[in-house]
Design a protein that fits this description.
alpha/beta, single chain, 27 strands, seven-stranded antiparallel sheet
Amino acid sequence: MKTVTIENETIRSFKRNWKKCIGTGRLGLALQKEYLEHLETIQKSIQFDYIRGHGLLSDDVGIYREMEINGEKKPFYNFTYIDRIFDAFLDLGLRPFVEFGFMPKLLASGDQTIFYWEGNVTPPNDYQKWANLIKACVSHFIDRYGIEEVLEWPFEVWNEPNLVNFWKDANKEEYFKLYHITTEAIKEIHPDLQVGGPAICGGSDEWIVDFLNFCKNESVPVDFVSRHAYTSKPPTKITTEYYYQELVDNTDMLEQFRSVREMIDQSPFPELPFHITEYNTSYSPINPVHDTTLNAAYLARILSEAGDYVDSFSYWTFSDVFEELDVPKSQFHGGFGLIALNHIPKPTFHLFAFFNHLGERVLYRDEQAIVTQRKDGSIVLIAWNLVMEKGDDFNTEVEFSIPVPSSVLFLKRQTIDENHANPWKVWQQLGRPRFPDKQTIHTLQQTSIPFVRTSREQTVDGTLTVSITLTKNEVTLIEIQPINDESDSYHGLDDRLITSY
């Protein structure tokens, strides 16, 4: 058994950078009812600060249009849909983390696209028209929401330009040109607006060095650095419906964060904020790992420690209402989302909800647990047991000795593991129905809830001992609070008179 003895002193404040931002599929999905229902649930349980997604300038949102006036085609900027989308975000307490992309077809220099919804990934055919579009968007946002609000919005230029799939030929110099012109357009509207990039995926971190040197040498403004992070190996098998990959150790992601932070510290802009604007285990939206308790247990350490290195890290994504590889073909399909279709929370949803219960003061932290204290003195701990090997016998025992001032305490424990809050497993047991009926959906929703246990505990010499067994890929949340016992106020109370007590 592992024994953890907690000293009654502050180690550090817990950085809630894990909840600064959440990812979404293309912004046009926000016009769907189920999408907004999922987002409302997310905000009630987790309360992210920002939301980032693709496709702001893609044709389904419809901002860039052209009209013929007196025989001449002129730009027309249509904000009907984006107003509806951003209004919905802000009403739920979410600010946009704005990603400028992809290219409107009428402005595109080529026909290369990505995804089912055909996001165009070519440079503009007219950089002046592109700059005017950027200025029109930013000006409209300020007119609608006010400069004080929009000054809080980060503006990120493009998405993963180091990949040929996302930026034609992965042309670094062309991206730098796009960034330069976009930044100038934004800063022309207001010099204090936040602009950054290069929003690359992992594996090409020399882009960050070159990008920051370019900004320094060309006197191009940069207010933050952005990057993405995934920890899956090349696929072991690809089918028409699934993408199977092994995962590297989760410390690899923490090392990615640390090493890039070090690059920024050694750059001409050492004080820049560093945002991970996408992260997850697999980068594929059809990898079943996303639906599992393994995904939650794997990411627990990331939520616990990554705030030491990055100013925000945005989980990709909050919902399986997502269409990069066409409309989802089944209830569970390996989607990125915290919430599955038909409003069924996945295990990783509960991981985030558990972390939202943590206190402000860190009493203890290691690779398998974090123990915190809230301002009211209550103790909250999360422990996890990541098991990446195949097999059955992977339980681990942990004993926590926690100093507490009260002698009598109430303990509430919530658990997700292979047998609790695991609707993916129940779906398998049901025969993997592609399009479940209402009764089946209800069953899946019922089985998506964490297992709850409660007890009344007594301290010994001011110390509470909590012994737990963690099963395979379990994540458990334990909340400990003093009891205000009012039993004596009930005249004639005697539970012994109840049958079986």
